[in-house]
Amino acid sequence: MKRAAVLLSLAAVVSATSYLLGSPAAALVGVAIMAHYSLARAGFRPLVKVERHLPERGTEREPLKAVVKIENLSSLSGIVRIRETSDKAFARELKVFLRPGERKYLEQTVVPQAKGRISLRAGAVFEDELGLFKKDFPVIESGDMTVFPSPKSIREAMREKRQIEALSEAEKALGIGAETLDFEELREFLPGDDITKIDWKATSRLQKLIVRVFKRETMADVYLLINVDPGFHRELKTGKTDYLVLIISQLVAYFRRFGHNVRVIAYDERGVVKVVDHVSDPFSLIQELGLRGEKGLPALRPAAISGGSSLGRLVTRLKGGSEAHGIMKAALKVPTGSFVLMVDDLGLHPGEIMKASRLLQRRASRAALLYPNPVFFVDKGGLNEEELEVLYKAYRERKTVMKKVMAWVRVIEVGPKDLLPVVVRKL
Q: Which residues form the DUF58 domain (predicted)?
């Protein structure tokens, strides 16, 4: 119960007692209590200015120090309490006594609970010395704060999240050849296989993981649309192109292992560069495509999604030989009703990828996009805080663009660790 309520209740009890007992002294006490309360209430006019200065950058779930300036601009003494009201951070409550005209500087420990660009809000409460009255005041904040993911949270997320098995997910995204109930063979387990298909008796006998393979309804042709433009292979140091060589080799080996015929259409910004039918050897395909790294700064921030013209008019102009991006021309070479896997960076030309996906959809083809995110290939060890902030902004912008592209095509985002080592060793 608040002190003011206790005081008013006491005055009411004393007044009732004086009435029942007919005691003038008790009545005077009740009147004195009410007079004291009224005078204190009328004189309670506090004015407090509170400012909080937060660091511009912080790390998720790691404490940082904020400087709080508190100034009493009234003629009252009292206690000021400062609490964090935002759910995006945890902050230690501050409590300080201020005399009239007094100014104090305090340190507050703040622990951000969210990532990205966040706005923190706090509230201040002024309470008189007797604890009878309170008044709320806003806290003036210095501005928004950028919070980076902590290494600990990243490690925890990686432990909880199943690593993307890019090749198996690609096949599921395309929906190639649904499984039947007819048994076909036993084979060694590969990363990406369904663990419910493990044959435990054969595994125990052979001392290695063995899975049951069932026949599929169709063994369809798979078209790989691969961007071979130098801009796609631009990198600060070797690594990304080597990864692309590995992942393309794995794609060919993986689909051929399950009986699919693989066809490749390579393109750049201007048009189709090469068409390879009936790919049988991943190594010969890599040599034929001539993939090699290009030194330079990769495009980390995504391009804007252009509006463009309607799909029908665009296809008409393409057939007439007009200029268009290479991925559109590559999509036109895919037969109706095919399975298509595009290997490209959606950040370079998201609008063209969406148009090509719509075109393939209209031609009754099923498509997916294998998207090597260049942000994942940047060496973050030697970056300072400003460079990390730029990298994080690029990552968030790419996530926003990816959500828009996923409205038209299934996107499989991959990084340097999304490999199938067993398949690589068998190539």
A: 185-259
